[in-house]
Write a structure and sequence with these properties.
alpha+beta, two-stranded antiparallel ribbon, 1 helix, 22% strand
């Protein structure tokens, strides 16, 4: 599944609170994509269901080689 907006992604995370989901995450330091399994949860100890920052948009695309 690909998300067209940050709002669409946020809704997916919200709807799947408490359920195991898999995301493909791009690491800019290693220039690599990896699969991450996690369960969105309000009890992470930080802000939001993921307790991390999420970037989206033109400047946050995976580079094509």
């Amino acid at each position: 599944m690909s998300f067209k907006s940050l709002e669409e992604f946020a809704k997916y995370i919200e709807v799947n609170e408490g359920a195991l989901i898999r995301l493909h995450v791009y690491n800019v330091d290693h220039e690599a994509v990896r699969e991450v399994s996690l369960t969105p949860n309000k009890n992470w100890g930080g802000d939001g269901l993921l307790c991390c920052d999420v970037s989206f948009g033109y400047f946050n695309k995976i580079p094509i080689r």
